[in-house]
């Protein structure tokens, strides 16, 4: 199961996008259910961009959370059990706070990865300006249309934002 959860980290983003189309496309069970429930398909919507970004970024969050929870001293959780805490309370009030640095770092790194997602998003959500266009697809379109000024604006924006995100992770870890 863990290997499956980690696949988006190593698969080309277009392969992830392909799988998302297969899983959520109009002919799939999930796609039909979504279309029946929401009266529209999910493909080529902003929800598709969100799903693609989450799927591609998930392995970073998973690894961070896993490391954070594995780093917890089990004696602390056991002491809470002895004192009468149920598993939910232990998780909520002991495990999560003790793993919080890893969870925060994982969230920030996942967000940063999702922000830069291109391939899966382009395949699954498309590039509809004002609807599903992301910064990476906006850069691609700007370059493709010869608008280097716009491309540079987006590139500088994403570099500054990415730098600030990584700086935040570094500060949180110290």
UniProtKB/TrEMBL annotation:
Function: Part of the binding-protein-dependent transport system for molybdenum; probably responsible for the translocation of the substrate across the membrane.
PROSITE patterns per UniProt: ABC_TM1
Annotated ranges, domain ABC transmembrane type-1: 1-171
Localization: Cell membrane
Cited SUPFAM superfamilies: MetI-like
Pfam families cross-referenced by the UniProt entry: BPD_transp_1
Record's keyword terms, sorted: Cell membrane, Membrane, Molybdenum, Transmembrane, Transmembrane helix, Transport
Name of the protein in its database record: Molybdenum transport system permease
Phylogenetic placement of the source organism: Bacteria, Bacillati, Bacillota, Bacilli, Bacillales
Listed transmembrane segments: 5-24, 44-62, 90-112, 151-169
Family (UniProt): Belongs to the binding-protein-dependent transport system permease family. CysTW subfamily.
Membrane topology: Multi-pass membrane protein
InterPro entries reported in the protein's UniProt record: MetI-like, MetI-like_sf, ModB_ABC
């Amino acid at each position: 199961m863990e290997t499956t959860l980690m696949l988006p980290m190593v698969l080309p983003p277009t392969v992830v996008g392909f799988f998302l189309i297969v899983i959520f496309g109009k002919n799939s069970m999930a796609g039909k259910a979504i279309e029946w429930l929401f009266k529209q398909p999910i493909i080529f919507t902003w929800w598709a961009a969100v799903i693609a970004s989450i799927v591609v970024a998930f392995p970073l969050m998973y690894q961070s959370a896993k490391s954070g929870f594995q780093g917890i001293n089990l004696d602390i959780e056991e002491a809470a059990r002895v004192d009468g805490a149920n598993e939910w309370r232990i998780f909520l009030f002991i495990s999560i706070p003790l793993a919080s640095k890893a969870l925060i770092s994982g969230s920030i790194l996942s967000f940063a990865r999702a922000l830069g997602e291109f391939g899966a998003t382009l395949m699954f959500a498309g590039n509809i300006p004002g609807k599903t266009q992301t910064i990476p697809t906006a850069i691609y379109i700007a370059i493709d249309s010869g608008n280097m000024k716009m491309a540079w604006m987006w590139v500088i924006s994403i570099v500054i934002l990415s730098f600030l995100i990584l700086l935040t992770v570094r500060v949180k870890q110290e």
